[in-house]
Amino acid sequence: MTRSRLVNRNIVAGRGRTSMRLEPELWDALLEICRREAIDPGQLVRRVEEQGHAGGRTSAVRVFLLTYFRAAATEAGHAEAGHGAGTALVRPKAIRAAEAVLAW
User: Fold this and answer.
1) Distance between CA 47 and CA 72 in Å, rounded?
2) What is the model's pLDDT at position 70?
3) In degrees rounded to 5, what are phi and psi of residue 12?
4) DSSP letter at 38?
5) What pLDDT digit, counting tens, does each position of 32-49 carry?
6) I need a labelling partner for 68 at 20 to 30 A (CA). Which of 17, 59, 74, 91 fits?
7) Burial class (CB in 10 A: 0-12, 13-18, 19+), 60
8) Can you tell me the distance from the alpha carbon of 55 to that of 103, in angstroms, rounded to the nearest whole number?
9) Which backbone phi and psi does 102 adopt, to 5 degrees?
10) Exposure string over 25-49, b if 16+ CB within 10 A, otherwise e
11) DSSP annotation of 9
């Protein structure tokens, strides 16, 4: 049997203290966003929860992490990394939702 890579950590969110299980890379991404936005992880999770994601809290956080960094990706960065043809992207609804969380 393989051992799970998920890391369990406690977060104080909207409904009080709870735990979340995320991959180590996602915890790193969450903490990076918190440093950039000058908020603590509990505040970030509360804001994400307030957006009303159809899935659970952990799913909502995973989607937020992805959309945050997708919104930050630039065409120049993609071209430099050799991704795609460097054409302009349309901002999906999920990216606009992530921006709304941070515009609070």
Assistant:
1) 19
2) 87
3) -95, 105
4) T
5) 999 999 999 999 999 998
6) 17
7) buried
8) 22
9) -80, -20
10) ebbebbeebbeeeebebbebbbbbb
11) E
Which pLDDT tens digit goes with each residue over 50-88? 888 888 899 999 999 998 888 888 887 777 766 665 444
pLDDT at 98: 67
Mean pLDDT over residues 94-100, rounded? Answer: 65
How far are the Cα atoms of 36, 43, 74, 76, 87 from residue 52, in angstroms, in the given order? 23, 15, 27, 33, 32
| Distance from chain centroid for Cα 86 | 24
Tokens of 32: 């990076």
How far apart, in whole angstroms, are the C-alpha atoms of residue 13 and residue 47? Answer: 9
Residue with tokens 């065409």: 75
The fraction of the chain above a pLDDT of 90, given in percent, is 44
Beta bridge partners of 21: 8
Would you tell me how many other CB atoms lie within 10 Å of the CB of residue 2? 4
